[in-house]
Amino acid sequence: MPSSAHDALARFHPLIRTWFSEQVGTPTPIQQLAWPIIAEGSHVLLTAPTGSGKTLTAFLWAIDQLARRQLPTGTVRVLYVSPLKALNNDIARNLLGPLTALNALAAENCVDWPDIRAMTRSGDTPEADRRRMASRPPEILITTPESLNLLLVSQRGRNMLDGVHSVILDEIHAIAGDKRGTYLMTAIERLTRLSGEFQRIALSATVRPLERVAEFVGGFAPKSQGGYVARPVRLLQAEDTKRIELQVCCPEDLREKRVDRKRLPAIIDALKERIDANRSTLIFTNNRKLTEKTARLINLEADTPIAYSHHGSLSREVRQGVEERFKAGELAAIVATNSLELGIDIGALDEVVLLDSPRTLASGVQRVGRAGHNVGDVSRGR
To answer: Strands 281-284 and 351-354: what pairing?
Structure first.
């Protein structure tokens, strides 16, 4: 392991170092860069390619502080906010693995280890879970901008959040430029009034301009003598760039002038060719109606379903079932809206197909970047 990698892990609890070395391996470049700065308590905006370990980068130092009992347990210490409920459920599942492994390793080595719990709070959260987290708040709470605002207007919610130490804002590029972003940062400032100043860690795979987004994340802190001052936010950017292989394709039947009646069947045939050529294919559209119609037409003559649809109007159970089947290799393709644009884990992807033109360049890069998820992989898109 390079000396920089040793240095990046050296400040962590010995048990975390052991787990990381055995289960994860060598820290990625962005982890080596970010951990010392996060450990200082600085506010950071961290940008790195998909699959570079950004989420673990943000969480691991907080887990270390909880393990060392620098942060007392029994209340929310880490607040994670993302734009999508589906992404939150995925993050909770992915956190459960490391937390369970660390508990087992601690028991095996007779190491004193706290019970660190992670729970999600959204519109999908059952009432029983809401009551349970109100009576015994988790150390890590995973939520959305809308649910955070709802928590802040209830006394039980404010009681849960009055000890927050760090806030992780994932996929910040997805909402920084719209009213949801304003809604989120308003809630973050209200949270500051409740719990005092806390560390802000913003994550994004694609964000421009960095300086403006950093200002947005930092906001303004009141000065003791009156007025406000901008909170400084460190910009941390991975040197390694994501390689993208993108082809613009047009089925032969669409080269004629009058194609209205033939357009979708010709596209469906082209999509089936790509699905047959790959082990796993993710197809993006820009609306739910086209998502459902495309999946139905792909499956029309198939003996068993080839593709399932995925969008925000489906129940959590249906969405998770589609994600799990695809990840297990039981499904060849998913047709999705932006519900799968962000970092939800659906396993290895051979290719991404954009059926509609993305609304923004950043969205297009994000979608194609879902293919070749691992560090160093090439993202293939059409």
So the answer is: parallel
